[in-house]
Amino acid sequence: MALLTPEHLSHIGDLGPQKQEIATRRDIRKYAVATGQALTKYLDGDVAPPLYHVTLFWEVVELNRLSPDGVYMDTLIPILPLDRAMAGGLDIEYFQVIRAGDELVAQRQLTALYEKPGRSGPLIFYEVIMEVNTAAGEPVLREKTTRILR
Prior knowledge:
Blueprint: H1 6-9, E1 19-22, H2 25-34, H3 40-43, H4 52-56, E2 85-94, E3 103-118, E4 121-134, E5 139-149
Antiparallel strand pairs: 1-3, 2-5, 3-4, 4-5
């Protein structure tokens, strides 16, 4: 019996809102220290370390808008019949480094939603692609996130 309905599948291709952020020297330095970076270019805040962008575009919300495990409830993803989430993969293609002062624009798209049988029951997979560009439209990175629900 299929868990995903035509209504669920109709959300494939949905786009989230564009989000704009500025990479600040202070935020880059804080991220570099928090992640144990050793290179001066990161610790001085000139260049952002890998994965800096991940939290840059997270929603800042009130505590009552978080799930019981402390995660923001992603409004891009439709409500699905399974809700125990696991990481399924992260693939990032970098086109240029992020530098202090860069104005960045990100947009996310739900690109896949499918199910597979698992050893302990059905699994639902979804994939979201986030494109990050400069304000001038130059590509910075492309990130594909896969999540698994059981």
